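Journal club prep — side note

Before the paper discussion, L.F. wants everyone to see what a predicted structure for a comparable chain looks like in token form. Sequence:
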Amino acid sequence: MVTVKKSNAYTLIEIVIVLGIIMALAAFIVPRIMRYLGQAKVSQTKQVMSHIEENLMLYYSHIGRYPTTREGLDALVMPPSPRGNWEGPYLDEIPMDSWQQPFEYRSYRDIVSKEKYKYYEIISRGDPAQDREIVTGR
């Protein structure tokens, strides 16, 4: 009588099937995770822009005007000349967007807009791979 010894190891077919299932799940899940991460970065950038806007309003309430394009967001960190009623610094440092790129600031004199009464714009160029910018302003 011949006895067959049973092995506790997995067969190659079983391993290939399990790897196929894992790869199919990864192909389905990874793009969703990446999309949610991208949305989170956009949301975080908008939140930082809102914080900058709040500080621009404080600047305006003290100085009586918004910074010029030339002064930029630096006016929230260092006093402009003439100093006037500057009570800053309004920010400890100028924040970066979620992609570690600097924000752009334009005063109303340099904005070409359909809106007549725009005072400034804060611009994030967004994800360099997607070529989509985020703009806020007053």
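L.F.'s comment for the group: The mean pLDDT is 85. Keep this in mind when we get to the figures.
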